[in-house]
Amino acid sequence: MSLTIIHLFLLLSPLRKQRIYVQCFSLTMSGNKEEEDPRINGIKTKIRVVTCSVSKIAGIMFQDITTVLLDPKAFKDTIDLFVERYRDNNISVVAGIEARGFLFGPPIALAIGAKFVPLPKPKKLPGETIFEEYELEYGNDRLEMHVGAVEAGDRALVVDDLIATGGTLCAAINLLERVGAEVVECACVIELPELQGRQRLKGKPLCMLVEYR
Amino acid sequence: MFAVENGLQGDPRLQAISDAIRVIPHFPKTGIMFQDITTLLLDPVAFKHVVDIFVDRYKHMNISLVAGVEARGFIFGPPIALAIGAKFVPLRKPGKLPGRVISEEYELEYGNDRLEMSVEAVKSHERALVIDDLVATGGTLSASIKLLERAGAEVVECACVVGLPKFKGHCKLKGKPLYVLVEPSQLDEVTF
């Protein structure tokens, strides 16, 4: 009887992992209690929440990840968690959204042997580019990508520090898909779930470490 | 000082790094041969060479802080910081960093710009490395050095992937040594 239950958990766990997308590290194989990876709390305690005019979304506190970077262990744990998830996933491209996606994307790319592709605002990239517009609260902005950086058939991961409305991530997904890449997942350190950004990812899964409500 | 002047002459990794950098003529304006490191980032082996060479140099220098200049310094700085167990401090354009910041102006060809750093990021007497993708005039690196020194850190060295030939020998920026991997690539090297 107990053997059957164990087999049931083992069989169901991969499916549960696919459905439990809120925190991609919240499950272990140990059974019915969600156990968060212990490194996550260490990362969360390092994120500084500030009220300031830098925030582009009125009424939202600013989740400052630069304080995570000041703690070598917390920073390393952040990268390790993503690397452990993606290293056997045949990811050939890690795309990072400027500028804070540049902090997390390259270490992940290096560790998993993937190319790193920066996705900056307009006029930063020197070569031929394609662009994708996305909406801001007032007006639009654009993300750009170098022509030729990503090829058809590339399996891509999109990285940013935080997902809020999902607009920039959606633009990134569009850029990658337009050149024939397959976006496997989006990875963010922080999610603001009340802004429902994960609904705007064209059905792509989101992996995040910490949520703020 | 260039890597070839300091023990790495003939190291094939330097040639691989140089070959991976694309030259874009007349960007952002006529006459400038822009050194595009995004092609280096598309070559995981060459990108790793960059990080490995810097890590080998700095891992025993008791560096506790790596400061990277926005935005391309954000690409090279964190992997180095992670490998040597140092913190990473972003040096950003105005208005991007939350909390209390200090700022330093530097000259552009026309006009000025500013770099900012969080005041809480640096402890007194920390040993710091400043990293950027390229050094040309040295204006941004000099501003970076000033920011860190104002916060009480000791800047041990500035490190760049690409540097103009004038930085050979014992050239210093604000009295600080400079370490550069390669000279600018030439236009006939085709990548992508």
Automatic annotation (TrEMBL), chain B:
Q: Where in the cell is it found?
A: Cytoplasm
GO CC term, one of those recorded: cytosol
Q: What is its EC number?
A: 2.4.2.7
Pfam families registered for this protein in UniProt: Pribosyltran (PF00156)
Its GO biological process terms? adenine salvage; AMP salvage; purine ribonucleoside salvage
Under the GO molecular function aspect, what terms does this record hold? adenine phosphoribosyltransferase activity
UniProt main location, coarse: cytoplasm
Cite the record's note on assembly.
Homodimer.
The protein here is known as adenine phosphoribosyltransferase
What is the originating organism of this protein?
Brassica napus (Rape)
Q: Tell me the classification of the organism that encodes this protein.
A: Eukaryota, Viridiplantae, Streptophyta, Embryophyta, Tracheophyta
